[in-house]
Structure formats: C-alpha cells, structure tokens
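Predict structure. Input: histidine kinase, 476 residues.
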Amino acid sequence: MKLPSLFRRTPFRLTLLFLALFAATASAVLAYVYVASASEARARAEASVKAEVEGLTAVYRTRGRDALNQVLVERTLKGGPYLYLLMAPDRSVITGNVSESPLDPPKADAPPSTARWDDFRLTDTDEDGRVRRRGAIGVEMTLSGGEHLFVGEDIGDIEAYLARLTQALWGAMIMVLLLGVGGGLWISRGVERAMGGLNRVVTAVQEGDLKARVPIRHSGDELDELGEGLNGMLDRLEGSMASIRHAGDAIAHDLRTPLNRMKAKMEVALIDAEAGRTSGVDALSVALDEADALLKTFNTVLAIARLQAGGAPDPKVFDAADLAADMAELYEPAGEDKGLEFAAEIEKGLMIEGNQPFLAQALANLIDNAIKYTPEGGAVMFRARRRSSGDVEFSVTDNGPGVPDEDRERVLQRFVRLDNSRTEPGSGLGLSLVTAVAEAHGGRIQLDEGPGVYDGRGPGLRVALILPAASRTPEA
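Output follows.
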C-alpha cells in the first residue's frame, strides 16, 4: 500500500531519522545513568555495611561476645536499615533481627576469617498487607571465637528511587518522541505546501505560462531563497522570450524594406535587361550588395544571441592598451577622410580578461558610430584608462548631435534607430552588440552628454565601455 505523500516527504523522513538517533542516544544515556546510579548506591551500601562490621568486630575483640550481643540488641531495638544476626559456631541463632542468614553457609574448606559478600532479596509486607521483595546487600564472617556474624543493609528505597528515575526518563523520552513526530508532521506539511507551490509554478511554465511566479513568504529561509531564484530565472526567461519575439518582429520589419528594395531593383534590372538598356551584371551587383547587408544584420543578431546565452567564449587575459592602440590606428584614417579631428589617449598596462575579437568588434562599433554621426569639421576622442575603482574604461567622445536623455536607455536595445540617424546606413544593432559584449564580460555601458554645444556643434555624446580588471595573470 502506498503511503500518503506527507509521510514520503524528505523532512518527515529526516525527522524520523533524528528521532531514531535521539532515542538511541537517550537509551544509552539512560542505561549509563541507571548503571552509574546503581553502582554508586551499591558502593555506598557496601561502605556503610563495612563500617558497621568494623565497629561490631571491634566491640567483640575488646569486650567479648556478651558485649557484642548487648550492642546488637540495642541496635535492633533502635531500628534502622541494618540487618543483624549473631550465630553460635553451630549456626544456631544467638540474637538479631532476622531469623536466619540469607547467605549460603561457608564451604568446609573456606578460611574461617573470609568475609562473604552477596546480594539477596528480603520478603516484606507494606501497610496494605501486600508482599514485597526488597533488595539488600550483606556480609557474613566468622569471628575469632567461632561465632558467625552477619550484617546487611536494606537498599529497597534506593532501588525504588532508581525505578522512579527510570520511569521518569522513559516518560520524558516518549513525550519527546511524540512531540518530535508531531513536529515532523507539521514541518512536513508546511514544506509540502511550499513545494506544492513550486511544483505548480513549474507545471504552469511547462504548459507555456511564463508569467507564473512562486509566492514569497518573506521568512528568509531556504525555500524563500529557492523561490526568489526561480522567480529571477523566470523573469530572465520571460525577458529573453520577449526579446526573441521582439527581435523576430524587428528583423521582419527592418528586412522588409531592403527586401522590397532588392525586389524592385531586380524587377527594374530585369525590365532594363530585356529592353537592352542595362546589363544583367550591374543588376546582380546591386542585389549582392543588398544581400550582404542582410547577412551582416543576421550575423550581428546571432552574435548578440550567443553572447547573451553563453557569455564571452574562450576568455583570455591580455593587455587592453594594445587592443585600444590597434583600434585607434585602424580608425584614424577614416576620421581624417571625413574631415574630423581624431585623437586617442591610451594608458599602459590595462590587463583585462575576455574574448579579444568580441571586444574589438564592440570598440569598432563605438568608434564607427562616433565617426558616422559627427558632422564634418567635428572631433572624436578615444580614451582607454584605469578608473579609480580599478575597472578598465574605454570611452569615445564626439561633438555630434548626441542622444537625448530620454532615449539613452532605449538606444541600447535592438533595432532602435533615432530620427536623426534614419538617413545613415545601419540596422540599429551596433550599441546593442556593445551592451551584450559588456554584460558577457561582467561590465556595463554608460552613455553621457559630450562636451556640449560649441560653435554650432553638439552637445555630443560620450559612450563608455567599463570592464572589470583581470583577477589573474596572463598565461605564458
């Protein structure tokens, strides 16, 4: 028969395991307490009986049998826990408060002075007339005149105390076990409810509901941490799916115009070729240029997706100053061709860890955008430096038209192109690729206003790519 789900939960099983361990430990402790208490009680009883025997034998040695008999009578009449019996050499009773020795007679070959210790049971009746058997301990020895002296002590009260102690300990352990089982059931029910919420969310997500979220109880325990982590993962998943849907829609929207343009040009080229007004080679050249632009857009989107999915591939430690110097040398002629003042300020020893080709593409996008949108006669400044925080910063500053404050977050998204950039070629993926590269390397991108309006130009734009410094040395 299958057990209810509550009893199959891990918390309940752990509770039973801990209770079993506790019961075993408590039993061991109980056994130790009982044995130690019993041993201590026996040792004290033996010491008490031994002291009593020494006193009585001292009376016998100094004053004889009659004096010993008198002392035994007095102590018997006084009462107490001790048992006395003085017997003649033939083991006939002389005096005492017991009728016979509870110990077996000594063996014939035993030395006369040997003291024989043993435990025995006393038969007694309580106030209600019920027969009781109480524990006792005693010693019998042969005196120098041949008489036999027995002295014992009733330890029934000690045994009763140990029995009550044992019952109390067992009762406490049973109560703890019952409370533990009840607590385990209560905890398991709470965990089952919490895990049920997690399972419902997982099932909903499997069925396609990406808006399902785990309710947070704000208790600060592991289940809340798991729920918050799962909710964060679902937030990113929902954002990624929305981004994919948006990217698909944007690609379809942005590619519609060049595809229509390509189709129109090819139709015109076909008509002109049939009429003999142009050659088919020129028409195919135009179509190839448009196809190259489309492939470039697809490759950029694919690169962004790979970065967002798996981070920077094959990271290595290298000096970013060398990369910055190469990029400045590569784009300085392009700036001069457009009539711009292009300058670079690069610090040395900027060690970072990452994928150099992706970082080179990101810097190329930043510098290319600055050159593209800065009017003739403007200036572009490219810097690579170490910030006071230790991070490495690449920045490109221009005095072009800039980007309004309200558009600086939006311009980092895919396929976003502002009105003042519609006349320039491009797909609106440059800054989104830079953002993906920054996030894949644990960095960020920051947009600020440039040098401001001056001589009819500006306010300009400053774009900074900020990356963490390398935490390890470059490989040999």
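The longest helix spans residues 10-63.
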